Amino acid sequence: MYPYVGKYIANLTLAQLKTLDCGSLRLDGFPLQEVYPGTRLSTLPELFDFVSCATDEPVLFNIESKVDGDFRNLTRGPEDFVKAMAGEFFSRGADFVDRVTHQSFDWRALILSKRDYPSLRTSALCDDTTLYKPLASGINGNLTTHGTGPSNWLAGIDIDSFPGSSVGERVARAAHSIGADFLSPVATSYASTGGAADPAEKGWIAFTNKTMVDTAHSLGLQVKPWTPNRKSLLEYLLNIGIDGVITDYPHEFRRSLERKNYPLAPPGDAKRVLKCLEKHNQYTADKLDGKGY
């Protein structure tokens, strides 16, 4: 219905983005997703204001700058992201900055963060597709089939220039070389066959492995993989010593961690959260029926 649907976010105004409904449809890959029909996109300041309303706890924030490393005209550049994000973080005081981590697949942004804002923590995201130069066919490949040479995503770093008998070791050393505080790798390699997404499935291949974790720890980096949504995968990651996880189902993982007696943040006040959601959430003029499909 709108002439700008399908265009890149970098080329749209906030007013245009605010007309979009991002709460009515349930994504097929997330069957447990709640829907809030008509929900508009929130800006970063609006998100922070909502969290301040919802809890008095010192919440930690892991904020990602979305920059395309290979096709750089599709997104705003890392300079724009770092300047805008840091401006918002530091306007809220040093205590707030101390609770924020800036993560990105585009390591240029992380290098800029460390250069211009040394006190801001950074997390180096990576997976099979970002470690290497794309194949001649234009495909990024995976752990077993990939190009060689400097990666556009890793600020021109050639992963094979670092010492180590495994990819995991070299990834950890590369992240350390840019001053990252955290390494945030994909949990499952795209080289896994037959769609295997679980350590219990035939053809599953780990991207995050013990060698990677041990090397990162020896260099002072914590490791927080993404996006394990299966409990068997969580068990595997805990067994190799990871420091945290990025998951779409934190409530489910919390139950597993409680049973293992991990120290956890106090549970939130559900009534307060929903009350603040009602206060802060913005809605489009039109909503779908709320079925989610």
TrEMBL record:
Q: Which InterPro entries match?
A: GP_PDE_dom, PLC-like_Pdiesterase_TIM-brl
Q: Which GO terms describe its biological process?
A: lipid metabolic process
Domain of life the protein comes from: Eukaryota
Q: Which Pfam family, just one, is annotated for this protein? A: GDPD
Give the GP-PDE domain ranges.
Answer: 1-257
Which Gene Ontology molecular-function terms are recorded?
phosphoric diester hydrolase activity
Name of the protein in question: GP-PDE domain-containing protein
What organism is this sequence from?
Saitozyma podzolica
Q: What is the lineage of its organism?
A: Eukaryota, Fungi, Dikarya, Basidiomycota, Agaricomycotina
